[in-house]
Amino acid sequence: MQSLIAYATLFMTVGIAVGRPRFGKEWQAGPASAALLATTILLTARVVDPADIIHSLQLHWRPFLMIIATMILSAVAERIGVLERLAEMIFSDPKTTPSRLFGQVFLMCALTSTIFNNDAMIILITPLVLGLVKKRYHGHKRLLAPFAFVVFMAIGVAPFYISNPMNMIVAEFAHVNFNQYASWMIPVALGGWAVTYPIVWLYFRKDLEEPIHTERAVAEEGEGLLPAQKAMLGLLALIVIGYPTVAYFDGPSIWIVAVIGATLAILLSTRWGKVDMRDLMFRTVAWDIFVFLLGVYVIAIALRNVGFTDLLASIYQDANLFVIGGVAAVGSALVNNHPMSLINLMALEALPDAGRKEIFASLIGGDLGPRLLPIGSLAGLLWLNGCKRMGLKVSLRTFVTLGLLVTVPAMGVSLVILLLRGS
Fold this sequence. Notes:
By secondary structure, this protein is an all-alpha fold. The protein is built from 20 helices and 2 strands. The protein has one domain.
C-alpha cells in the first residue's frame, strides 16, 4: 500500500505542477501546492517521517541561497536592461542575415544560461528575442519558430553547477565543489553544444537561408551600454571569477560569492533607481519553487523507502554510462528532471562502486532529456508559455521530432567525452 501511495504521489505532484489546475476563479494550484499536498500525504501515510523534512532543509540551505541570489542577479540585469541592450546590439546591423543572427542568438542564450541558469534565461530571453524578430522581420512569421527553438536548444549540459538548480543540489549532495564539477562538465557541455547547433540550423535551414530584405535595424548602431549596464556586466564578470577562486580555497563556500554579488546588484540598481525592492523580493524571486524542490526531495525519500531506488540501483549495477544517461533522460522527460535527478542520486549512492562519472552521466541525461517532452523541465514549460504569449503555437510533434534529432546525438557525444575523461 505504501508503494502505491509513493508512486501515486509522484505522478500527482508532477501532474499538478505541470497542469496547474484552477479551483474556482481565485486560486490556481502550482508547484508549491503540489509539493505541500504530496508531503502531507506521505507524512500521513507514514511513508516518510518528520526527520526526513528536517534532513531535507539541512541539505538544501546552501543551494537555496545560491538559487535566490541568482534569481536576484538575473532580475536586476533584466530591470537595468543589460540583456535587452545586448540583444539589440546583436540585431542592430540590417545587413546581418537571419542565419548569422541565428548563431549569435544561440551563443547569447548559451552564455546567459551558464551565468544565470536555464530557467532565468528562458524567462528573460524568449520574449525578448521573439519580440526583436517580429520587429526586424515584420511579416515573416515563419522565422519565429527557428529563433524560439534555438533559444530553448541552447539549454544543454550545465557547464557550471550554478547553471541548473538540480545540478547544484545533486553536486552538493555528492560533495562535488564548483571547480571539480566545472573541470568535468565544461568539455561535456561544449561537445553537446557543438552537436546541437548544426542540427537545429539544418532543421530550419530553408527558412533561415531564404533571402529577406531588412529595411532597418531594431536599434541604432551608435547606441552603447549605459553606465548602469556596464557596471552590471562588470559585477557579473567579478562573480564568475569569484566562483572558482573561492572554490579553490573552500569549495562549499561559493554561496557567499553569490549572496555578496546579489547584494551589490541590489545596491547598484538602487543607485540608478531601476528596481523596486518589494517587487524584486516578492514577485521576482519564485519562492514557490523552493517549496517544490523540498517536496520533490521528500518524494524521492519516499520512493527510496518503498524500494524503488533499490530497483533502479539493480539496473545500474553493471550498466555503462550510456544506460545510466539514457534512463535518466527518458525518466526526466516522463516525470520531470527535478524528481528524476534526486531518485538517480539515491540509486547511485546505493552502489558501492558508483563514482563521479556515474553521477555526471545521470546529470547529463537529466539536462538533455527534457528536450524530448515539454513536461521534462520547468524551463520547457516556461518556454512554451513564453512562445504562446508571443503568438507562436508550438506543436507537440515538432517539439518531439526536433528533440529526438538533437538529443540522441548530443547525449551520445557528451557521454563519450565523459567516458574518455580519466578518473
